[in-house]
Design brief:
This protein is of the alpha/beta class. It contains 17 helices and twelve strands.
Length: 403
């Protein structure tokens, strides 16, 4: 076993995000600690697979309440790392094996991939015979393909996923398509590279709130194991039994509330969680409060607890901090406007350009109004400056990145 060469972080001026020890709390942390020596997968990826998988397996019964809105503990997460080298798929191998021992029929019938349409997603959980299983965990190892599907004319996949995260009540909203699903419990795990993500996550998905329903996490290979044989059964079997106990307790949990001490901590945390951030980063971090509470409830249920305690909130906040720093490195330098980002990138490579050069860079068929909007956005964000210079003819405006 050898330590892997650590790939460069997406932002050269920032260290790779660090997962605080608090996030390894309880049974989830014990699972990660048991698997970690035997795998090349990132511990963060293992942790998120366990939490998202367990949250789907237990169904929509356990929840917390915000006013009159119920929040079942379904999560969407996207693991962002190098193609094949980040071992994103490997991180699901042992968690799936463990959860399959808890509920074999769920692992066999309710874990799938292939998000090709909103209609198909609804059909997988549509209303039918009494007792139909409405749980569905979608694991997409090529999440870029899902983002491409959303860009197609007429695709309802994005609004369907938003409905799935919010209420679980899904319908195509067309008169001639009667298919619908009520009480669906859908969770999503996506794998993608940063380059694919920034290329295919459109401004529409940023603005409509799909992006901020996801936990974004940078992941990488933790080590090199030439011949991985996995965790011995003698170590996995006790974990499977503990997960079975937690799942059985979750089945009777119903509404989870915070303990008095946890309520005090929540009040202290709330201001920071609900503070908005500018640009694309703000768009993808806009549901921090709900995501932290969903995580905290899952940590509580894995403890077989009937209320969210301080340690559960601290674990959730630690994992959220990792997700927030990941998002900052993935999206923080992006404006959310692909044209503006392209101009900024060109200027960052040591160039200053006048408007004619910018037009030539982008292609003369690009609309001048779109370029001006992009430049104005960069200027408003303080990312570029404009200087008017006198020439032998008309004055020209020269743009450069802000020092």
């Amino acid at each position: 076993m050898t330590t892997d060469n650590v790939p460069h972080a997406p932002c050269a001026d920032r260290p790779w995000p660090k997962l605080a020890q608090e996030a390894r709390y309880g049974l989830a942390g014990h699972v990660v600690g048991t698997i970690e020596p035997h795998t090349e997968a990132d511990p963060v990826a293992i942790l998120l697979h366990i939490l998202v998988g367990f949250g789907n397996l237990i169904g929509s019964g356990p929840h917390f309440r915000v006013e009159h809105t119920l929040h079942p503990l379904r999560l969407f997460t996207c693991l962002v790392g190098e193609t094949s080298k980040a071992r994103k798929g490997t991180a699901w191998s042992t968690p799936r094996h463990l959860l399959a021992q808890v509920d074999p029929s769920w692992a066999q019938d309710r874990v799938t991939s292939g998000l090709s349409s909103g209609e198909g997603l609804i059909a997988a959980v549509c209303d039918g015979p009494v007792g139909k299983d409405k749980r569905l965990l979608v694991v997409e190892e090529e999440f870029a393909q899902v983002l491409k599907v959303m860009r197609r004319d007429g695709s309802i996949l994005s609004p369907t996923l938003r409905q799935a995260w919010d209420t679980g009540n899904l319908s195509p909203l067309t008169k001639n398509n009667p298919i619908r699903a009520t009480g669906a419990h859908i969770s999503v795990i996506g794998h993608i590279t940063r380059e694919e993500l920034l290329r295919h996550l459109t401004e529409t998905e940023q603005a409509n709130g799909l992006a901020n329903r996801f936990l974004w996490a940078l992941v990488r290979r933790s080590k090199k194991i030439p011949n991985p044989t996995g965790v011995p059964a003698s170590q996995l079997n006790p974990l499977a039994k503990q997960l079975q106990q937690a799942a059985a307790a979750a089945g009777a949990a119903g509404e989870l509330k915070r303990s008095p001490a946890a309520e005090t901590l929540w009040c202290d945390m709330y201001a920071d969680l609900s503070e908005g951030k500018p640009g694309l980063l703000g768009a993808v971090l806009g549901r921090a409060e709900a995501l932290v509470m969903r995580l905290a409830c899952l940590y509580a249920l894995l403890d077989c607890a009937t209320a969210v305690q301080v340690e559960h909130l601290e674990a959730a906040a630690a994992l959220w901090q990792y997700a927030e720093e990941s998002a900052r490195q993935i999206f923080g330098s992006s404006t959310g406007n692909p044209l503006a980002d392209r101009i900024k990138t060109a200027l960052e490579h040591g160039r200053e350009m006048d408007e004619t050069e910018i037009h030539n860079l982008l292609g003369r068929n690009m609309k001048a109004a779109d370029i001006w909007r992009a430049l104005d956005l960069l200027k408003q964000r303080g990312l570029v400056t404009a200087e008017e210079r006198q020439t032998a003819g008309r004055p020209k405006t020269v743009w450069r990145v802000t020092n």
